[in-house]
Amino acid sequence: MAYKNISFLAHQEDISFVSQQLLLRTISRFNATNRELYENIDQGFKEENIIDILGALNGIIENCSGYCQELENIVPILNQADDLLPPDTEVIEDLPDLLEDSSGVDGGGE
């Protein structure tokens, strides 16, 4: 994946829209890539070619990893979308600790 670090001022009312568009594009890209890889797996079975099957499985793993990274990249923008918060809600900025707490596994974070 190719990423660029961008910084710009946006109107407060536009942050939700920008966040939504980023999220939708991320999901779309992930699904399109996986569809292609699923077809490669199917073709590999039809041709009885384990190399193609394993290559597609590896591609799915890489795609999932990239997807997770893209989702993590969107979190700081979502944290700026105050209009998505109910009144009197505190923004949780430490997603890894939140995920750790929800999994019930202590990863040593504070």
- The average pLDDT is 85
Task: Flag low-confidence runs.
Answer: none
- Amount of beta strand: under 5%
Helix content: 55-70%
Report the principal-axis shape.
Answer: elongated
Please describe what this structure looks like:
The protein is mostly helical. The chain has one domain (14-103). The chain is 64% helix and 0% strand. The radius of gyration is 19 Å and the shape is elongated. It starts with 14 loop residues before the first helix and ends in a 7-residue tail after the last helix. The relative contact order is 0.12.
What is this structure's SSE topology?
Layout: H1 15-46, H2 50-78, H3 95-103
Helix pairs in contact: 1-2
Structure summary:
64% of the residues lie in helices and 0% in strands.
Give a quick set of tags describing it.
mainly alpha, 64% helix, 0% strand, elongated
